[in-house]
Amino acid sequence: MTCIICRHGETRPGTTTVTFHEAGRTTVVNEVPAEVCENCGEAYVAEDTTTRLLAIAADARRSEATVLVRDYASAA
Q: Which of helix, strand or coil describes residue 56?
């Protein structure tokens, strides 16, 4: 698809890093599958991936950690 941000690049399968900030806590999820613009790097995450990301973030809220880093593939 054509990137809606730069309107020049095409997206290709790749990965991105997603960061959540909530209530003084930061959750970083690495290696998230996404369509990434070859021109500007904007990443587009599919709905099913977003659902899983939200579950990872909810799990992180139950942690005592202030900063939690997870890899998408290994997060349950």
A: helix
pLDDT band at residue 70, thresholds of 50, 70 and 90? confident
Q: How many domains does the chain have?
A: 1
Residue with tokens 């942690």: 63
Average pLDDT, rounded, for the chain = 89
Would the CA dihedral through 41, 76, 58, 51 be positive or negative? Answer: positive
Q: What is the CATH number of the domain that holds 50?
A: 3.10.20.860
Residue 51: per-residue pLDDT: 96
pTM comes to: 0.82
In a domain, 28, yes or no: yes
Residue 4 lies in a domain: no
Rounded (5°) CA angle 8-51-29: 70
